[in-house]
Each structure stands twice: as C-alpha cells, then as structure tokens.
Amino acid sequence: MKTITQWLAMVLVGSALALSGCMRRSAPVAVNPPPSLDAIAYAGPAPVPVAYAAPTSAPALAPHDAPYHLDAGDKLRVVVYGQEGLTNTYSISAGGSITMPLIGAVSARGRTPQGLAAEIAARLRNGFIREPSVAVEVEAYRPFFILGEVQAPGQYPYVPNMTAESAVAIAGGFSPRARKDRVTITHADAAGTSRTIAPPGAPIGPGDTVLVDERWF
Predict the structure, then answer these.
(1) DSSP labels for the chain?
(2) CA-to-CA distance for 166 and 179, rounded, in angstroms?
C-alpha cells in the first residue's frame, strides 16, 4: 500500500509533465501557404494594380510640319548638276505634270520635291545620263483663296507657315459683319476634299480656301 507521500509525489510529477506538454504547444496561426509550382505555371502571378491615365487626343499636325506634296500651280526649280540645258524653272500644269527636255512629261502631282527629283533622275538614267544628280525645290507655292467677310476676298500668293489669321490680314482684314472667332478651311489633296471649322490661328496650306462667315448678332 502506497503511502500518502508517494501518492503526492506521483501527482506532482504528472502535473509537471502535463504543464510541460502545454508549454510546447503554440496557439494555431493562420498562414497563407506558399503557391505551388503548378499554381504559378497555370494561374500566373497575382494581379498587380495598374493606374490608368485618361486618354488625351494628340494635337493635329500642322500642314507645314508634314512633307509637302506638289500640285498644279506650284512653280519648281529643277537643278540637274552639270546639265545647263535641263536646269530650269518649271510650273506644274493643270494636269499635274512638268515637261522637261529629253524625258518629256513627268508627273508631279502628289509627289514630294524629293520624290520628284528621284523620278527625274531615274528617267534621265534610262539612256540619257549615266549618273544624274537632281535637286528640286519649290520656287513659288500655288495660291490660296479667301472668301466671305473680308475686305478684299480673292486669290493670293501663299507664304510658308501661314495661318487663317494671316490670310485675313493679307485680304485687308475682317469686314464689320465678320464672325471673328472661327473660319472654315477647305483642303483638297489626293485623298479628297475636307472642310474644317477652326480658330483663326489654325495653319493653312497652299491651295486651301478660307471662308469667313457672317455673324448674326
């Protein structure tokens, strides 16, 4: 028969062991498991927030910033180096071409001056000059037109980098009944004819027509 002392010792040892086991246990913690290789391969990485800016419209390209395309009424200076008989001033006809010695009519409408120079050189190289060197520059641009409420509507020589406002100035300024906050610009090219309502500071090109409307109040 166990004595009371032995029984108390056994109770103390059991209690110590129970407390030891409890102390080794930690409270459960919620941990997100690391993604598996399959999850990465098939699901891809987690989405990353992206900030989107509101789209803005690009400013319209001014005509004088774009490559210049030739048309009827332009007067050109064509220089063929070493060939005085070919170097001359040529006007583009209503049909859109210039006529040169040796090679005859060369289509100029819709070409840039550099493109026309390359075409002339190719035509001369075909049985006339071994290695021709050609340069083309615009000597005088085709005129522009201004109509409506200006002092002197009509046709005027074009000057590079013109605006509708400077066109109005060339035409003597606005009439007393003119609407001064906008104009209508008509532009024609190989793609067709377009009409744009624009502020007076808008650029115009050779051959364009500027219409100044009448104000109603």
Answers:
(1) ---HHHHHHHHHHHHHHHHHHHHH-------PPPPPHHHHHHH-SPP-----PPP-PPPPPPGGGSPP---TT-EEEEEETT-TTT-EEEEPPTTSEEEETTTEEEE-TT--HHHHHHHHHHHHHTTT-SS--EEEEEEEPPPEEEEESBSS-EEE---TT-BHHHHHHHTTSB-TTB--S-EEEEEEETTEEEEEEE-TT-B--TT-EEEEPBP--
(2) 16
Decide if pLDDT at 30 tops 80: no
Prediction pTM value: 0.65
Q: Name the nearest CA neighbour of 110 among 119, 121, 123, 102.
A: 119
CA angle 158, 162, 165 (to 5 degrees): 115
Cα separation, 96 vs 142, whole angstroms? 12
pLDDT at residue 89 greater than cutoff 50: yes
**163: which strand partners?**
203
Among residues 162, 143, 133, which one has the least CA distance to residue 75? 143
By the 10 Å C-beta count (0-12 exposed, 13-18 middle, 19+ buried), 147 is classed as: middle
| CB-CB neighbours of 24 under 10 Å | 7
- Provide the terminal-to-terminal Cα distance of the chain, rounded to the nearest Å: 125
